[in-house]
Amino acid sequence: MTVKWVGAALLALVSATAGAQEVAALSSPRNSIMQLPELRVLGTIDPNVRKATAIVNGDIITDTDIEQRLNLVLIANQGKVDAEERERLRLQVMRNLIDEKLQIQEAATHDVKVSDAEVNNAYNRVAANFRQSMEAFEAFLRAGGSSPQSIRQQIRGEIAWSRLLRKRVEPFINVGDDEVQGVIKRLESAKGKQEYRVGEIFLSATPETQAAVLADAGRIVQQIRGGASFVAYARQFSESSTAPVGGDLGWVRAEQLSPELAAIVPNLARGAVSDPAIVKGGVTIVALIDQRQVLSADPLDAMLSLKQLSIPLKPDTSEAEARAMVTDIQAKTQSMGGCGRAEAVAKDIGASVTANDQLRIRDLPPPLQEILKTLPVGGATPPFGSQRDGLRVLVLCGRDDSQTASKLPSFDEVYGQMNEERVSMAARRYLRDLRRDAIIDYQ
Question: Which intervals hold domain PpiC (predicted)?
Fold first, then answer.
């Protein structure tokens, strides 16, 4: 059997790898609807020149502000960004910081306040996701070239933006009860059909700018497929109201999507990212985060009892030597007769054993999901791993299939989703009109 050299994120049965994505989740959205009465940009828009400072209504954005915010994106992408893409990101970060200043200023104009205590509480929740002390978290940010102050400023802008939308946009959005009930009835009739959890990156475009926006979207897709964070790019580039949550649209059925996306999403593999697609008002990129059957028990919700055998590799182990080890390990684990002999086999092959009795198939990486969905109790996966983290084998000790069907969403849940979609559309129109009237002086 072919050896699968998968990334380190696939190796641990239970691991805490959400840290970088939490940093990605702090990038501010582009879709500001703020006025631009007094904007002066000092410097150059040449992407080859690194200095860039802006004064937005008297508030200064320094080159340090830009670098620290850019480094949050690079941390989220684990440094997988080339020099050209870094410069593009840098310009985008500068635009986002200008929007952020405008968001905070406009919120203040409409008496929307964000207290320091609220910002600190949100910051502490982010830090807690790293499962390390506050001192270690702040050291991690500084080591990556960012700072706690940069994150706090992002948090302040996002809270201000959200409250301003609730105050200035959402009151004028109307979703009728009959519309909500119609959606619920259609969901009931769709029992057993597929529904999808979708991520989106929306870029606005006019007929004149469509070609350039498509080219930009294509570069974003290349970066994400090369290992960059979809969440980070959604935060930095998306002009949808889903940008603050990394582009997550939640669970939808194909018929709830636009005709363009309805033709794309069902054909995506779980975890895949689409090519850019032209939609009304611009260009979109979608990612299929997950899928399931409407109101049906999902095989991916089966609870597994597993033992993991972990075999370290020496730093100088060649691929040929590793393949020889894989052949020997696979021969011994495939015929070991189940979990009862896992410790004895582990001792024979120099492995350590970790047990986990509460792991859903859905929580595993997609390659392992496909193997474990059909693996019999007592069976073992083929060895997998990497040079750095060694080889792993999972042994299936037991499986409890889910007997609980997914629940029909409540009236409030359906109403909330429909309301959010309409707020997003209204915000984009508002932004389009403000940009058309904006006066920006460059020096």
Answer: 193-290
| pLDDT tens, position by position, 122-149 | 888 888 877 778 888 889 899 889 999 9
Residues 129 and 24 both lie in one domain: yes
313 and 412 part of one domain: no
Question: In this structure, are 284 and 416 located in the same domain?
Answer: yes
* CATH number for the domain harbouring residue 220: 3.10.50.40
pLDDT tens for each residue of 25-82: 333 333 333 333 444 434 444 444 434 467 777 788 888 888 999 988 888 777 667 7
Report DSSP letters for 199-268, one per residue: EEEEEE--TTTHHHHHHHHHHHHHHHHTT--HHHHHHHH--STTGGGTTEEEEEEGGGS-HHHHTTGGGS
Single residue among 144, 168, 192 that ends a domain in this structure: 168
Cα–Cα nearest to 104, from 156, 53, 35, 162: 156
3-state secondary structure of 337: coil
Helix (H) or strand (E) holding 40: strand 39-43
d(CA 152, CA 126): 10
Residue 258, both tokens = 């636009």
